[in-house]
Amino acid sequence: MARISESTVRRLSHYYRVLDEVQAEGKRMISSHRLAEREGITSAQVRKDLSTFGSFGRRGLGYNVERLREEIRAILGLDRRWKVGLVGAGNIGSALIAYRGFEKQGFDIVAVFDRDSARIGQKLGRHVIQDIAVLPAAARENPFDIGVVATPIRAAQDVANALVAAGVRGILNFAPRKLFVPAHVALSTVDMAMEFEGLSFAITQSVARRRGRAAAAVPGPKPGRARGPASRNAGRRSGGRTRRAGT
Question: Tens digits of per-residue pLDDT, 172-192?
Answer without folding.
Answer: 999 999 999 999 999 999 998
